[in-house]
Structures are given as structure tokens and as C-alpha cells.
Amino acid sequence: MDKPIGIIDSGIGGLTVLKEAEKQLPNERFIYLGDNLRCPYGSRESSEIVTFTREMINYLLQYDVKLIVIACNTATALALEYLAQEVPVPMLGVVYPGSLAATKQTTNGHIGVIGTVATINSEIYKRTIQSIDPAVRIYSLACPAFVPIIESGVVDGKELETIVEAELMPLKRWELDTLILGCTHFPLIKDIIRESVGNDITLIDSGAETARKLKKIVLKYGIQNTNKRSGAISSFKTTGDVSQFQKIANLWLDKRVWDIEKVDLSQRDVKDISF
């Protein structure tokens, strides 16, 4: 079935899912949609997050996508279950795959989760992890500073290192052995997070785990593309600045990204967010 797979995110974070998905499913076509104009989602009201997620899904449905990945933890937490009954194709979020991987990895039963304010306040990781293993203790920490900085194109440097160290300071008192990066933006600064938390804590990339789960679902439903390609083909849509999106996409995907289109998802009068 040579229909594309849709991937949506509040911004560029979902590129961490796409990068792994291209490796796992090299014969597939992907359409990536980032709502960079209205990012970050993590500080917004639940109703807005549901509305914005619905707009992204409806936009991709016009391309006859066969499956949609909500590559945003905040949208997964607040919109996936609500919208699943409306959408005529399978949808996959990023919370369960990361939660499952963490429960398999931990040895002392102390799992940390970092994410946006909305994701952490939803307690979706706590509920999901405890449904898998009730004995695990979950420690959650909101890191609201990270996404705006990453969206601005800053993914390294001393200033960012200082901010990350300050944001993650509370983790040091919890004796964690496993930490879920509960926002798909966060793997873009994974090396800095690693430097902050040390080598004794295993970092779980929810985006990479989701891409591996995506492959299993595609095969389970028998909707894989059987036409052989030399590699996955991806096109990109953004509601924000194309050049800024291209800059980060080129950096993270390790290739030149050309097929980028600026799109308008709604008639609302919204201003571009700059940091």
C-alpha cells in the first residue's frame, strides 16, 4: 500500500521520530507536519491543544495517509484518546512505547520523566507506566524552558548547558536509573542532558521507541509499501518559518531537506512566536 504515513508535531521535535522511522521503514513515504507557528503546545490550554491537533490531522487526511503518528507527547497526552474516535485511520502516540521501554530497562524501579508542563500535569506517563508495572515509582519534572530554545535553533552551547543543568537539578535527589525524554524535542539536546544527569541513568528516547512500534503496526495491519526503494521519501509542511525549519531539519536528519511547504491550518489570526 503505497500511501504515505503522516507524522505531526507541535514543531520540530517529531523529526526525532521521523529520523528513526525512515531507518525502520525505508520503503515508505512520509509527510511531516510541524505546527511551528503555534509552538510550544506545552503551556497551552487543553482545548487549544485538541483543536490544533485536530487541524493537523485533518490537513494530513487530504493526502490519503494510511496512518498518523502523533509525534508530540503533549498532543498524545491531551488529544489522542479524544480524537481517535473521529479519525478513519490508525493513530499512534509516543507515550506508551517510551513507557514500555522504560519499565523493561529499569532495575531499581525508579523512573523519571521530563516533559512539557502540559504533559507532566496530565500524569499520562504515571498512569501508563503504572498500568504496565504498578510497582514502579515515577518521578516527573516539567522542563518548560527547553522547547522554546530548541525551536529557536539553539541545540548546543554553554548557555544552554547552564539552563539544562538548572532545570534538571531536582532529578539528582530521586535515585533514578532510567529517565524518559517525554518530549520529542528533547533528543535534540540529548548529549547535554546526558552530561547533566551522568552515565548511570539510562535515557529513553520516546520518539525512537515510537518509530520501532510504528514498524510493528505497519506490518501487523499489512499496510507496508511493497515497492522497493533506495530509501524512505519524506516531504515536509510547516506553519512557521521555512528557512528556520530547514536549518534544523538539515542538522538533525543529516541530509539536505528541500521539499518544505508553508501551510495555513486555520483562519485564526495568530502571530508567529519568536524566542
From TrEMBL:
It catalyses: L-glutamate = D-glutamate. PROSITE patterns: ASP_GLU_RACEMASE_1, ASP_GLU_RACEMASE_2. The active site is at residues 72, 183. GO terms for molecular function: glutamate racemase activity; identical protein binding. The keyword Hydrolase does not apply. Keywords: Cell shape, Cell wall biogenesis/degradation, Isomerase, Peptidoglycan synthesis. Substrate binds at residues 9-10, 41-42, 73-74, 184-185. Its EC number is 5.1.1.3. The keyword DNA damage does not apply. Pathway: Cell wall biogenesis; peptidoglycan biosynthesis. GO terms for biological process: cell wall organization; peptidoglycan biosynthetic process; regulation of cell shape. Pfam families: Asp_Glu_race. Belongs to the aspartate/glutamate racemases family. Provides the (R)-glutamate required for cell wall biosynthesis. This is Glutamate racemase. It comes from Bavariicoccus seileri. The lineage of its organism: Bacteria, Bacillati, Bacillota, Bacilli, Lactobacillales.
